[in-house]
Design a protein that fits this description.
The chain folds into three domains: 1-30, no CATH class; 71-96 and 198-376, Rossmann fold (3-Layer(aba) Sandwich); 97-196, 3-Layer(aba) Sandwich (Rossmann fold), CATH 3.40.50.1100. The chain contains 14 helices and 13 strands. It has helices at residues 75-81, 99-113, 125-137, 152-160, 172-184, 196-202, 204-212, 229-243, 263-270, 296-305, 315-329, 335-349, 371-376, 388-396, and strands at residues 2-4, 10-11, 27-29, 71-73, 84-89, 117-121, 140-146, 164-168, 189-190, 220-224, 252-258, 309-313, 358-363. The strands form three sheets. Strands 4-5-13-10-11-12 form a six-stranded mixed beta sheet, sandwiched between helices. Strands 8-7-6-9 form a four-stranded parallel beta sheet. A three-stranded antiparallel beta sheet has the order 2-1-3. Strand 1 and strand 2 form a beta hairpin. It binds pyridoxal-5'-phosphate and zinc ion.
Length: 398
């Protein structure tokens, strides 16, 4: 069943619906199978390990074996900050971001519904992922991107997998409004995270974190927040496993936003249960350059219900954290992902996070998604002749 999070109106699983027809609010898919966690043992480590919790037809699954991503202990960085730190590396998914989890379920649902065209607005990763999964399923794919604001790797993926890429004169929020209008006209099946089936895939990040920890919850999960689907999804995942009795505790959900695009953090500071949109969002972390997050209400509930936090970080803090993670732990992530590490550092310094806390930072996308930002942060390589004498001269100067 699909249910409105505000008025409780109920809709069927085969209904093509994105927001509540009664009150306009966002929807969620209800899912509570009665199974024992023993059934997960010995299954391949992809997100479909937890298929009983995925509300789609098992015989139609479209998968590139997403999920089952690395859960890396980061002892050096953790010791430096005084916490026990694990990093969930979502850049290891098939197209290089966690969006693949949502698209696997979303595209499976699209096949179930019998649609022939899917679409989305995107800051980049959603379109990269949708293009790949639509190709795999044989569906037509239309993506709307904010002109000039999409990182190169993501644009390359969307185009190369054969999506119809349309550049919008405007920002992400405007592109989303435009593609939603197309979806309501019946021109395409919308696979932005307002589609509640997307979050059903992404909740598997929460499943995997507690499974990775040996059926325990960490004290806290920290992640970047843009359109706010992922923080809502992870909270849904850990809550479902808690209610199924698989874990005895729940983590504090901690969302990090860029200072120039922080409607959720502002709402949390004032204790509000909805946001005031930010007009011209700006940040180097293009994946979270969003002023009017569609899942804001769900995200705010996740933060309040889990006794969590929201904080902002500056672009400088994001870029320093990106470099720190790459150089201290060997984990290469795109700028938005580094917001989780930058946020952790800031919250420790502010005394909001206690020494010794067990923290999981979700790093959401791969370094190579945004090669320009990475190259701009480094010196150009020195060019030398290929002989021992010139090489020795250079090495002596390092
Ligand atoms: C989509 C995305 C985010 C933001 O996730 P939301 O669900 O929109 O909050 C963060 N980082 C990366 C790399 C992303 O692709
Ligand atoms: Zn409603």
């Amino acid at each position: 069943m699909i249910k409105c999070i505000d008025c409780g109106a109920e809709y069927g699983l085969r209904d093509i619906i994105y927001t509540c027809r009664e009150c306009g609010s966002v929807l969620e898919v209800l899912c509570s199978p009665h199974v024992s966690k023993d059934i997960f043992e010995c299954r391949k480590s992809t997100m479909w390990k937890y298929k009983e919790f995925m509300p789609v037809d098992e015989s139609r699954i479209v998968t590139l074996e997403e999920g089952g991503t690395p859960f890396c202990k980061c002892k050096k960085l953790g010791d430096e900050l005084g916490v026990k730190l694990h990093v969930k590396v979502e850049g290891s998914n098939p197209t290089g971001s966690f969006k693949d989890r949502g698209m696997s379920v979303g595209i499976t649902k699209a096949l179930e519904l019998g649609v022939d065209t899917v679409g989305c607005a995107s800051t980049g990763n959603t379109s990269a992922s949708l293009a790949a999964y639509a190709a795999r399923a044989g569906l037509k794919c239309i993506v709307l991107l904010p002109a000039g604001k999409v990182a190169l790797g993501k644009l390359a993926q969307a185009m190369f997998h054969g999506a119809e890429v349309i550049s919008i004169k405007g920002n992400f929020d405007e592109a989303l409004e435009a593609v939603t209008a197309l979806a309501l006209e019946g021109k395409l099946y919308l696979l932005n995270s307002v589609n509640p089936f997307r979050l059903e895939g992404q909740k598997s990040i929460g499943f995997e974190i507690v499974d990775d920890l040996g059926w325990r919850s960490p004290d806290r999960i920290i992640l970047p927040v843009g359109n706010a689907g992922n923080i809502s999804a992870i909270w849904k995942g850990v809550t479902e496993f808690y209610e199924a009795g698989f874990i005895q505790d729940l983590p504090r959900m901690t969302g990090i936003q860029a200072e120039g695009a922080a409607p959720i953090t502002r709402a949390v500071r004032k204790g509000l249960d909805d946001i005031v949109p930010v007009e011209n969002p700006e940040t180097v972390a293009t994946a979270i350059r969003i002023g009017a997050p569609v899942s804001a209400k769900k995200a705010l509930r996740a933060i309040y219900d889990s006794d969590g936090l929201a904080e902002t970080v500056t672009d400088d803090e994001i870029l320093s954290a990106q470099k720190l993670l790459a150089r201290k732990e060997g984990i290469g992530v795109e700028p938005a992902s580094a917001a989780s590490i930058a946020g952790l550092k800031k919250l420790v310094e502010m005394g909001e996070i206690d020494k010794g806390e067990e923290i999981v930072c979700v790093v959401t996308g791969h370094l190579l998604k945004d090669p320009n930002t990475a190259i701009n942060a480094c010196k150009e390589p020195i060019e030398v002749d290929a002989n021992l004498e010139s090489l020795s001269r250079v090495l002596n100067h390092l």
